[in-house]
């Protein structure tokens, strides 16, 4: 509970954070999509592109109200943005950040978590509607199918490799919910700790990983029965959890102490901690989203209040550099 109190102070400060500068048309337009990080500026209502070779921001455009999570298309040509302050999922070209379409999910949708699946379809939570959306053929017909979770704060989402099932973390209800996307069976939910928020599915689809920020724990669940197999102590206030592409480790983003907890997925044990913020830096930086590089060698950590993205070498735990995170960078996506 102490971590929840600490977060209240952090969020109060974040609400007063300065707005981002207006998009600057003088930024260099990079015609090459390779090696880029995309950053949603939730305070500045912006979307930025950062070149990973130079570490420089090359594009910055206006996006939508309070943008949060991002997802890139399987061919890396597009990035989809969940417009948490509105009701749309907006799609931009990765080459030049031109918005190509806006998909309306209905009144009070407040989309937050988003996955662009290998099958080409988009999946997103609609927190305001207590539901999950399946957007089929988002670059074409963009058919939308809505599935109610019946839970408060359906926030983050994971999707099975088959595309048959989705899972949400429901902050307000303290639950994890399984949604059957193909048969439309009634969703099933279980309580998992206090304020479960982070969620990730192992690459083989056999383990569902959840971080509960109010419990300072990560949980390993059976994806289909939702039985909790293991509980692992983490750092303070683990907002997010991400599984390495190789499947051997999971990492939590521990906002209140500015670090990462590394979990061996085979044993379910915490094996080390990585300090990102440095002494006294946790509240200043407001560490939120984490993202693995496709090769699993680096972790990108959004330091929202500091307008930076820390690039961390996984093997050594060293912070290699800090990239621009303009406008309160929160949601991040990558192509290499």
Automatic annotation (TrEMBL):
Report the InterPro entries cross-referenced here.
Haem_d1_sf, Host-pathogen_enzymatic-act, WD40/YVTN_repeat-like_dom_sf
Instruction: Return the PANTHER family for the record.
Output: DIHYDRO-HEME D1 DEHYDROGENASE, PROTEIN NIRF
Name this polypeptide is given: YncE family protein
């Amino acid at each position: 509970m102490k971590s929840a109190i600490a977060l209240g102070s952090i969020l109060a400060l974040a609400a007063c954070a300065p707005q981002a500068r207006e998009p600057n048309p003088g930024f260099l337009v990079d015609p090459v999509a390779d090696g880029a990080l995309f950053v949603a500026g939730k305070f500045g209502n912006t979307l930025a592109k950062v070149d990973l070779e130079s570490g420089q921001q090359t594009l910055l455009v206006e996006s939508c109200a309070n943008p949060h999570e991002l997802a890139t298309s399987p061919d890396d040509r597009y990035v989809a943005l969940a417009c948490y302050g509105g009701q749309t999922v907006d799609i931009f070209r990765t080459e030049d950040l031109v918005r190509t379409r806006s998909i309306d999910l209905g009144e009070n949708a407040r989309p937050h978590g988003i996955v662009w699946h290998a099958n080409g379809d988009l999946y997103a939570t609609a927190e305001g509607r207590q539901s999950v959306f399946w957007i089929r053929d988002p670059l074409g017909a963009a058919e939308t199918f809505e599935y109610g979770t019946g839970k408060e704060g359906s926030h983050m989402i994971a999707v099975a490799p088959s595309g048959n099932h989705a899972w949400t973390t429901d902050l307000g209800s303290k639950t994890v919910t399984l949604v059957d996307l193909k048969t439309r069976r009634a969703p099933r939910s279980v309580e998992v700790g206090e304020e479960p928020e982070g969620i990730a599915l192992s690459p083989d689809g056999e383990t569902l990983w959840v971080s509960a920020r109010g419990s300072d724990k990560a949980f390993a669940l059976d994806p289909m029965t939702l039985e909790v197999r293991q509980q692992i102590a983490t750092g303070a206030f683990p907002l997010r959890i991400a599984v390495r592409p190789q499947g051997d480790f999971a990492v939590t983003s521990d906002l209140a102490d500015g670090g990462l907890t590394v979990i061996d997925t085979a044993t379910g044990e915490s094996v080390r901690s990585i300090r990102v913020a440095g002494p006294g830096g946790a509240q200043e930086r407001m560490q939120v989203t984490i993202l693995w590089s496709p090769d699993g060698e680096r972790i990108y950590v959004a330091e929202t209040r500091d307008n930076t993205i820390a690039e961390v070498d996984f093997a050594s735990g060293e912070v290699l550099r800090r990239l621009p995170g303009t406008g309160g960078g929160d949601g991040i996506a990558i192509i290499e």
